[in-house]
Write a structure and sequence with these properties.
Length: about 1000
Amino acid sequence: MTFDLSQVALIGISYLLLLFGIAWITERGWIPEAVTSHPITYILSLGIFASAWAFYGVIDLAFQYGYGALAYYLGTGALFLFAPVALAPLAELARRHQVHSLADLLVFRYHSHSVGALTTLCMLCGILPLMALQIQAIADTMHILTVSGNPSLPLAGTGLTFKDVMALCYCAILAFFTISFGANREQHRGLITAMAFESLLKVCALCAVGLVAVFGVFDGLEGLDQWLLDHPENLALLHTPIHTDSAHALLLVFVATAVTMPHIFHLGLAENPLMRNSHTVTWAFPLFLLLMALPIFPILWAGTELSVPLPPQYYTLGVPILFNSPGLTLLAFIGGLSAATGAMVVISLALSTMVMNHWLLPSLKLRTRSDLYSQLIWLRRILIAAIFFGGYLLYWILDNRLSLADLAMTAFIETLQFLPGTFAIVFWSKGNKRGIIAGLAVGTSIWALGLLVPIVTGMQFIQLPLLSWSIPVGIEYWSEVTLISLGLNTFCFVVISMLSRQTEDEQYSADLCAADEISHPVRQALDVHSASEFKHRLAKPLGKVTASREVDIALKELNLGIDERRPYALRRLRDQIEGNLSSLMGIHVASEIMDKCIPHATAEAQSTVDINLIENRLAEYRNHLTGMAAELNTLRLYHRKTLEELPMAVCSLGRDMEVLMWNRAMSELTQTPGEDVTGSYLEDIPEPWCSLLIDFSQSSEPHFYRREIELNNRPHWISLHKANIEGPITAGVYDQVMLLEDVTETQLLEQELVHSERLASVGRLAAGVAHEIGNPITGIACLAQNLKYDSHDPAEVLDTAEQILSQTDRVGRIVQSLVSFSHAGHASKTEFEAVSIRDCANEAINLLSLQKEKTQVLFCNDIPKTAIVAGDAQRIIQVFINLLSNARDASPEQGRVMLESNEDEDSVTVSVTDEGHGIPPELIERILEPFFTTKEPGEGTGLGLAMVYSIIEDHSGHMDIISPADTVNNRGASFVITLPRHLDYFMDA
């Protein structure tokens, strides 16, 4: 059965155009998002793992190694089966840091550009044989279908044969497709959908050939069983290779393909969002591999039964040909074409990204005045074309000397060399750049001498210098080369990493990549203060247009505004921009640009844990936490909810005054939403809270009581309390937690109580006032009567008038003292004036002297006139009224009450001492409690000393009680109050 070349070419081009069309309409949104974003689509896109090697070459592998060929599926399937442990951490790192290649990930982990450059070189050397495999498979199958009616395959050719021309045309068309839909920067949803389609097609084609093999060639499963019984040698061939070491080496080679192959990493980890839900991958992709593996042995046995005159690697195409089924033959051809196409497209994308990011961009200087995006796209297009040409060149040089299995083994063994360094990204934080460079260099060198050079040059032995030994090399010794190269690679990596020391940057990157990375984020300050400043800083390396666009893209992705100033938001913006630049030009170049233009500020003190970052990451990981981690997260959420819903206003601050927490009660008290404050500096919150909290934070006092502020044109009183919290990973570095109480209602109530106490005192003074006023009024009446009889003598009239005025002045003073005392007097601290303590004490003594019915004592006011404090005169008089009244009541008849003071530069200390019985020790702590009194019922309210304490505290003073005051006679009590001195008066004096 033969086909016309034009027919085969038309079918091949039509299929490529179909892929082209699927990608094109997906990019334009014509295919519903429910289809393009469905998990099945992403699972099928991972089918690029099954390249032309899996469609054709695995049959040959099964022919050579029997059931050992299943290692190809078992190794990768096992890795995906444990995806939550093995792959999910790498996928999360790739997503978070916008890593699109294995080289970028290794550079990020080992913090070395040399690692990226070496990785790119080794990956190119290893993957070009895999590209040559795809080209060879397509060229051979086209040759089988078109050249001869007898589908035999020439083993070698010379020069540029017609088959080579067909292969070159195929590479050119495929390169055009890749450049069109893979070179841009956007997420390749069209590419993912197209790859999903090609995977579906090839698995259907392979299964169709398998069904024909079972039911067409063997007439069903019973016929196949009978054939195997009749030909037991076929079963024996399947079991025999398992008993050799090659089966174990096969499993080792294939277990790393899901991570280290660049095309699988690119589409599976970097571009595939399904990896974030790794639980689906654990069963879905192994199921896909099972479907791919089921037809392998039936096709091999059918080819043996039909005596297909082709190498076993092409039994997938030979069985339909000899079964005389043109439709199935074309389906098998398109399936193989699809497998090769998907692999080559993604391989060229991954390799072009690696070469551009780690070879060209670090050495090239792009023109920032031109369109940077256009320059990068054209550079990537050129690299894609060059990689296709390189693959074709290697195919042409090899000239069909190797089978597909040999080319695949050569490529897989080289990519296996990346396994130690990749494993250490997450699971071994002690690995460093010296170790991975040494290990990778040794392993790749052994691979190159043992496999690559022999397959290119035909060399069969390596003569050791100065020795007569010759070492056999070549693809026949792939098992030995695998074990030796990987063993020495791992040994060098581990030993050199243990013997050499990591740099601080390496250690930081290792901590970020480690499995417990979520416990190590550090809050680092930036030397930028707004989002708009990012555009100015990045304009030099990127150009104004590109810098502005990158910043705008990052702001949109984070839902932030250009006027953003919060430090935490700016740190997130920097990370987002760096991640976006990493996807554009590689993590090494992006890190250099960001470190140069927007570096982290040099911290004067140790950095502290980034609490906000931990909260965000825990929120992202919440559905993935299990076991103890899930229980701890539940406990964290409970405590977090407790703080959030606490009816007390609570906030926490970092050492650099960054707000780390702002609970709901704090938001209600300050009328500032927590989401607008969290992550900002304290100086950026609105007044009056800014000044109040900064003063309190910088103060050495653990408490501020009843600080007055103005809110909505009304006075409010706030009490503040704070505690220092030592960081969990930075000893000696303390954050602060603050608790705020709105005591406005309590303050107003106390003022009302004070006023009530004043009025009660006025009532108690009323009798004495009446007596005192009665005397001058009687005198005035007498003088007025005498005035009638003294009207003839002007001198006597004048004298009488003066006496009347004197008596009325006396009445006025008494009334004025009483009226003044009855006023509440609650001036704020900003309205405090210079107050003479002596005058206030005299005023209180004058008022108390009106109470004639009380115990009569001698008040000795020895307070000097220089005792001037800052305060409210009426409230200080209230203090003396209460203290002197209590001292009088406690003193014996004709006892003395002493008023004395001491002064220094900052304060005035006043003592009121009586000669009473003193205060019992058990009552000293209670006498300041409201409503506590030792007097008889009706004699006192128990509010006097409580009011005194409150007033002294409002004046930023304090009060001490000494009892007994006279230790010799064991009597008396002394109340000592200290008030801040009025500094202006002191300076004037």
